Amino acid sequence: MSATGIGAAVRRKEDHRFITGQGRYTDDINRPGQAHAYFLRSPHAHAKIKSIDTKAAAGMPGVIGIFTGADLATDKIGGLICGWMIHNKDGSPMRAGPHPALAQGKVRYVGDHVAVVVAETLAQAKDAAEAIAVDYQELPAVVDTAKAIGAKTVVHDEAPDNSVFNWHLGDKDATEKAFKAAKHVTKIDLVNNRLVPNAMEPRAAVGDYDDGEGIFTLYTTSQNPHVARLVLSAFIGIAPENKLRVIAPDVGGGFGSKIFIYAEETVCVWAAKKVGRPVKWTADRTEAFLSDAHGRDHVTHAELATDAEGKILGMKVHTTANLGAYLSTFSSSVPTYLYAPLLSGQYDIPAIYCEVDAVYTNTAPVDAYRGAGRPEATFVVERLIEITARQLGKDPAKFRMQNYIKKFPHQTPVIMMYDAGNYGASLKKALEMIDYKGLGKRKRDSARNGKLRGIGFSSYIEACGIAPSAAVGSLGAGVGLWESAEVRVNPVGTVEVFTGSHSHGQGHETTFAQLVSDRLGIPIDNVSIIHGDTDKVQMGMGTYGSRSGAVGMSAIFKAIDKVIAKGKKVAAHVLEADEADIDFADGHFAVKGTDRKLDFGSCALQAYVAHKFNGQELEPGLKEGAFYDPTNFTFPAGVHICEVEIDPQTGVTTIERWAAVDDFGNIINPMIVEGQVHGGIAQGVGQALLEGARYNADGQLVTASFMDYTMPRADDLPSFDVGMTVTPCPSNPLGIKGCGEAGAIASPPAVINAITDALGHEDIAMPATPQAVWRAAQKSISRMAAE
Amino acid sequence: MYAFTYHKPTSARQAATLLAKKEDAKLLAGGHTLLPTMKQRLASPSALVDLGACADLKGITVKGRNIVIGAMTTHAEVADSPEVQSAIPALAYLAGHIGDPHVRHRGTIGGSVANNDPAADYPAALLALGATVVTNKRKLTAEDFFTGLYETALEEGEIITKVSFPIASKAGYAKFRNPASRYAMVGVFVAKRGSEIRVAVTGAGEGGVFRWPEAEAALKARFAPKSLDGLKHTAKGINGDIHADAEYRAHLIGVMAKQAVAQATGKA
Amino acid sequence: MTTVSLTVNGKAVSANVDPRTLLVQLLRENLRLTGTHVGCDTSQCGACVVHLDGKAVKSCTTLAVAVDGASVTTIEGLAHDGTLHPMQEAFREHHGLQCGFCTPGMIMAAVDMVNRRGHQLDEKTIREDLDGNICRCTGYHNIVKAIAAGAEAMGKGAAPVRQAAE
Predict the structure, then answer these.
(1) Tens of pLDDT along A114-155?
(2) ipTM more than 0.95?
(3) Which of A308, B127, B201, C12 could form a disulfide with A183 if both were Cys (CB 3.0 to 4.6 A apart)?
(4) Smallest Cβ distance to C56: which of B8, B28, B105?
(5) C132 vs B2: CB contact, 8 Å cut-off?
């Protein structure tokens, strides 16, 4: 392994600009003559708009233009779309209500977009927005996930009972049969709490229109600028793709929330032409809370059947998923195909049946948030497994080991074909790392200090690399999920890689360069990774679903193969040998069995000067592209163990130890991978202990700032002990499985299992706040006293 | 923010004159409550009178059996002051645990006291230590000064110039932070001066900071954490919100009071 | 409009601003020093932390007019003559950043922490002292390591840069 090649903990190439304040985020971009947009948002969760009077506002100082939904309609600007069609059990399509970028006749959640003011300064835009008179007829709001279906209030006329769809997966009859044969059935009711992604960089957009060329440019905080361009062109109708450039520059975190195409960026780019000025909008944090797509929000009943020996026979799940007031870009896929196919977990479960009701409510749209469906599935599985083990009086580690899938490939009853894994190895290693044997003593030590100690396991699996295009197409996806790469070799042998993946913290500029450096045998500094600009990269699908390694890098791998193949042809001419006799290794093309060789840079130069061959024999130049379509999902899996100590006096839960053993297949940069695990765990711990979006009965978001929504801070978290096992992924050339979401998927059940172990309770709701834990601890103490 | 005019006097007297002259004027101290409020357009003063250049409002002095802290002294300055650390270490501790390090570099005792946020730390110290709030017009005891949620006895044109803390023989402060905002969800300051014992609670009361007479009585017998065993504060009159309902907050008052006494008696 | 004159990263600057201009706006919009970020409206996230007369403050909660005459150091002023500050170096070395958005505030807070608490910082101290800075990417694990290492490096020869700059 070279110091900069595959497997090395190379320090990140992108860091210099970030640590010196030279990152270039969307809000850092200022276009000449730029005006500022401010969105007037609905203060009501649900209301008819009887009228909007902008006259007084239009005359305010600095105002350049004020637009409403009517103006968008006049310009035939289409609504925002949901790109994944889900069908009901009866085969009918899901019920998608319209989603105009600016409200047309009705607002459906607090923060819904009513009008936009474009003014010389942001303060002037805000002043004018206050002067817009909107006559609302308030309607009752439906907020509660579990009560949405059949509620008196209807969010969309298209869905008269607020049902977006009623969907299912698995074999119901086989599952019922398994339950009939069961010796033991565990039943649980769970809520997967609603979260606000809160990337530290708020969403922003700068729209620009070049009248001379007739070209729109949109700078935006996007994880997938090409998908944004596709949707803005083909569905919303801003401009044809060749007249619309989308740039996602440095993006300050996404976690899913910046996948989607939002109203604000749509309006900014459209308005730039209307006012003849660049138009900039940046969310403040409260706007982010109100209008970024939220995550999770499931209400679930689940059951697990086991036989007399504790072997799992079947699983039944019913989930109600809140999708909010409108269907966000990929919202429908999250509680369906990203959720139910993961319900087998790491376990051999012969029969599974899952039914999902997706509902509209008068809340912000809900869509993918780090893990997207898989954390929800893992929470169901790992809570069920844990409770079952306890009810059966079995050690939770041994119970897991007993039921793990041990032979691969393994076909689950819910679509997925697991290709490779070794779950027992991860568990074994994690048990050693956490010193499971010493737990009893640690529990006694805690008890002596008046504290309660508990341990919680989570054996998670995820399906990443999303995904084979034909497969997702058959499941309803509106797009294919391949990735593209173009490798341009310059005449002196430096390389530029154009990738459709997008880095917003993941370190692609380093990891991808490592791959190129390793395969071409050139210094890593000779490699540049270019992404995030539709004018530079032809097409791409972006970064989410832990796909950039497995899919994005596989595309680069494929393009490099082509570069090497072409290089061999060039070298054959230069070295006057047969192409079949040319080997490429360590950065040199060499004639087999001789000392005649050509280094990569010289080969590149020869390709461009083209003196040694003519155009009929071989095209000059060295540049190759590839589209890589994965052949399967990838299946990262692992075991996380969390050990907590609870102060029953205050209810404060302290995470004392955290052991994570993940199998991500092959790893390019272990430093970056571990960083992804740390961040994922922190978000999962946030969900388990701290975070929760709360709407009141009127649909007002009561957690709309960091004053009320608890973000994990440094002193809420421990350091994490992170280990790896490696079973290479067989379905892509690099053997990579993906690592971005694992921590967030694994950690919530680990924390809750640990707390309930400490308390001797079956369940505690997330977030397990000090108040909730204190209340539960009081019951434990009085019960222990009674015993 | 709405537009305002900005004034920067160099003395408390000048500040008072400006405050009297400008309608709807507000004083700007550290700005860590006022500016966020103005950013959200929830306050719209026509003028801001910035006390930042009033040298006569700054500084910490020991006067006899009192520590006197100028209104514009920052939380960091109080926390780091050798005088405060040696005279009333609990007060330095309290100041060193307000907000975060950056907030403590700007936030001031005068600003905090004048705002009387029910979740602020300082009001508990003032009430427990029996401090006197000195204004440009008069002197007020803490009891008389704090009159309700965000309410004080300050009148139009009145400016806090300093706060004088009698030095206690023992004092301690413990707070349970709101997990999100990090303000006090419950903060208890205990102080013993001669035979007088005071227990003041912030963060929890529907009407802002208050004293807990039952705890004071219990501690009078013996100033030790054990004296509070079994003593529970009633949930009546206690705040509830999404982070802590009245019952839990009331419980935390007892827990924090014990911790504060432990700190005061060197047993923490 | 009011004229504000101050020293930013060692250079005298002045600007004509509306009194409601925040220090962060002055830095980002007037001076185009966009390394200082805004991540919240409630003075909590710390993305906007700069040094004001040598002390870390939240520039989103400070009026530009109020710091007339002061000396401000931003993330852009931390490296000198092309040499990174030891804390910047430590963040890179220990992978203390991912998306980079909170990083400038985090590094400025870290340098201030060392100025206040010295060069030997244990994990507990660092975690508690980071109360005013929120990161969503790293889980803080590597930030804590970076600060401990940066603090030590600052003690070894490399003087706290703010003293040189301010």
Answers:
(1) 999 999 999 999 999 999 999 999 999 999 999 999 999 999
(2) yes
(3) A308
(4) B105
(5) no
